[in-house]
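Fold in tokens:
===
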Amino acid sequence: MEEKKIPVVRVLLSHVKEFKKDSILTPIFMILEVAMEMIIPLLMGAIIDIGVNKGDMKSILLIGLVMVLVALVGLWTGIMGGKCGASASTGFARNLRKAMFRKVQSFSFENIDRFSTSSLVTRLTTDVANVQNAYQMILRIGMRAPTSLIVAMILSFRISPELASVYLIAVFLLAIIIAIITFFVKGIFDRLFKQYDALNNSVQENVSGIRVVKAYVREDHEIKKFGKANGTLYKLSVKAEVIMSLMSPVMMTAVYTSMLVISWLGAHLIVQNTLTTGNLMSLLTYCMNILMSLMMLSFILVMVTMSAASAKRIAEVLEEEPSIQNPRNPVMDVKSGEIVFENVDFAYGKDAAEDVLTNVNLHIKSGETIGIMGSTGSAKSTLVSLISRLYDVKSGRVMVGGVDVRDYDLTTLRDEVSVVLQQNVLFSGTIAESLRWGNPNASDEEVRHAAELACADEFIEKFPDGYDTHIEQGGTNVSGGQRQRLCIARALLKKPKVLILDDSTSAVDTATDAKIRKAFREEIPDTTKLIISQRITSVKDADRIIVMDEGKIDGFDSHENLLINNKIYQDIYEAQTGGGYGDFDQEGGEKNA
């Protein structure tokens, strides 16, 4: 992914939105809490100097009452600061997740290719959580700690400039140590989040492909693969934690050293009558406040350093511009299913060394049934993906209904060009709900009719709950053939002008395949149908067949003519009919699929 400068802070803060009020109130409450805390040491000193030393019980009670009131105000401001801070940070995180998810939905395939799925999952979860925690710490401790440090320092110098100088030396030394620790830990966190991507990728692949893992008895391999990613993450985490753990002993050493030095010097000043006992107690309290504030600032610095990598990764998603966007004045109607390719070249990525498609010219009439064949890697799927504008051409143009696909409103085009991809995906819910992805407003009768056309009604009606049968995520509780037929029915519910089946009947037996094609001919004659298949039987009845070879059109004719004049098609035909490599079970095959 190419590096580009992103105004990370501006991008992220633009999503605070309705939580601006809480984001402003939080530091205000924190400042008030600090003010109350700073008053208490002065009151403590006054109790000793005015009340205890002089035996004035009335002054002790009066000052004590004021201390209680100040403490209660401090308690209330602290609670309100915590409440507003929690609201602001969780709301900010919610807005970030929502904005990222919306942006991902607008991505083209090219954009998605730039980010791995596991990386997007990490950015939506772990990275957002890190930014949320950092934001809350900045609003609360980020305001509280420096305010407390500055006020305590001012009041300390007001009491005794000589003793307060000890604080300055301690603060200066600690600041140097914190800067060194932060420098070393920053690079580790950058590597840490990349490793989170690798770990999530391992988990995602294993869980989604668990059946393949078990079928090939690769559990041990996957365990080792996960263990390696998890081990690397562990080592980096430990390394970062070890470095950060140095802060606590360094801080405590500074705190206790400062207190010892101040106590020793303060005792001398008391003997010399230049400092009171109450003032020394106030100074010791301020000493703790100053150094604890510095410790909190160091934790914020570490958290911000850690979340900086997360913030950058989130901003990359939010600032990513979809490579495919609607034109300014889009065409809102697809007149027909006519498809034209004019001198089309295509490559995945702008810097690709070679084109995937080269000089493709096609003219497909509306309502035609077109078969597409070719060896693996011949760019069959790439060809049809340009029709629904999942990718944009490098040069030339693709037209549907006489209009360049780049001039259409994307929703309009994709509603009229229905695609059943190679990897069939069903989302969790009932069968009826899964089918209505094609048309949310489809009636029960329309749902049943689409299932009949896809020959899916045969197995749906055998389920105890019929169309109300629950489908697990990904359709894992139905067979491959059943899943393919459900996806075909889902696509048909859109009533498209162009229907593309990308090897979508590969798990269906030949008899069922023939029924589906027969239903297409009789029920949707005006829909242009493109059928990618590796089986001759699936395309031989098509009006014409495209034969592809290494991203080029090697032939485009009827089954009969291709058998006469196209060598690639002849070889495929011979292999599947005369060479013994035809479809399994020509008489029915996958009975229960």
